[in-house]
Amino acid sequence: MLDHITLHVQNIERSIAFYEKALAPLGYIAKAHHEPTIGFGVDDGTSHSDFYVSPMDDAEISPVTHIAFLAPNREAVQAFYQAALAAGGRDNGAPGPRPYHPGYYSAFVLDPDGNNIEAVVDWSGWFEKR
């Protein structure tokens, strides 16, 4: 159900150092480098990361959580986006391809508390049913 989650942190260097050490026994490594955001995932030879740390924006009073739900196809991403807006969510990125890597297609909405919620078809189409 979940594809990945991002924690917004006050000190990115400190957090990266912490998670590199804390997650190593679980087989996680730093592998997705979208500096200053870093993604961690199992060392499986792919670029897939399911846990990210990202610096807080200077304007943020408290961290905002980012959760990405895995969608079976692009139509589901579009339906999620429309349903979330109809339910009172705010646009944070219309459905479309993203520059993170080939095959990444998603939509972003902000929930009523400002959390960034994403629906995504990801990882170069390995899951997508076109």
Automatic annotation (TrEMBL):
Pfam families: Glyoxalase. It comes from the Bacteria. Keywords: Lyase. InterPro entries: Glyas_Bleomycin-R_OHBP_Dase, Glyas_Fos-R_dOase_dom, VOC_core. The keyword Nucleus does not apply. PROSITE patterns: VOC. GO terms for molecular function: lyase activity. Residues 1-122 form the VOC domain. Gene3D superfamilies: 2,3-Dihydroxybiphenyl 1,2-Dioxygenase, domain 1. This is Putative lactoylglutathione lyase. It comes from Bifidobacterium saguini DSM 23967.
